[in-house]
Design a protein that fits this description.
two-stranded antiparallel sheet
């Protein structure tokens, strides 16, 4: 498989280091699919066995409260899936493995592609990420202050999963800024397409 032109492993400097870090975070988070699949298997097995409460304990435990239930296993699947999504989307953008509408883009010159991507960052991506990070932070703090948790014996401490929304979009903002710096350097002749 060819290395895409925007591969952060090509080049040096602080921007490349940050982009490599974002890709590494995404690759590490992608491994969450393994515990998700294990939890799905456990959930299906326990559901077929009609087990509701798996185990109880004396003191409250972070996320689980005083018991592990089939509902908390189901919640944990979705929480891990959300965390995986939030941590992998920026890496997909940096590695140029995200969904894009290529039927028009493939016919553009490299300079036109760079201009469109720079405009896309400033007009679409940066404002969207800023809004989601700002409101996601408030959303997380409000959830923490309320002690938000499940109403049906699922997971507690819901602020944990909600915190990954501003984290994920913050990573996306940083990734977009790094890629935009690269595109600007290419556009103004201070870098090469494959620097």
């Amino acid at each position: 498989m060819d290395t895409p032109p925007s591969d952060p492993n090509r080049g040096t400097g602080p921007v490349h280091t940050v982009l490599r870090g974002i890709v590494w975070i995404g690759q590490a988070a992608a491994w969450l699919i393994v515990p998700i699949l294990v939890l799905v298997l456990i959930g299906v097995t326990l559901s077929a066995a009609k087990v509701g409460t798996i185990v109880r304990w004396e003191n409250d435990v972070f996320l689980f409260g005083s018991k592990l239930t089939l509902a908390s296993i189901g919640d944990l699947q979705w929480h891990l899936f959300g965390i995986m999504l939030m941590l992998t989307m920026a890496g997909a953008v940096v590695s140029d493995r995200h969904v894009r509408v290529d039927f028009l883009r493939q016919h553009f010159r490299e300079k036109t592609k760079n201009i469109i991507e720079i405009m896309g960052f400033f007009v679409l991506l940066a404002p969207l990420c800023y809004i989601v990070v700002l409101h996601g932070y408030d959303f997380t703090v409000r959830s923490f202050n309320m002690g938000e948790g499940s109403d049906y014996d699922g997971l507690y401490d819901r602020f944990v999963v909600k915190a990954f929304v501003p984290i994920g979009f913050g990573l996306m903002l940083i990734a977009g800024a790094g890629l935009t710096i690269q595109k600007l350097r290419i556009l103004f002749g201070k870098g090469k397409t494959h620097d």
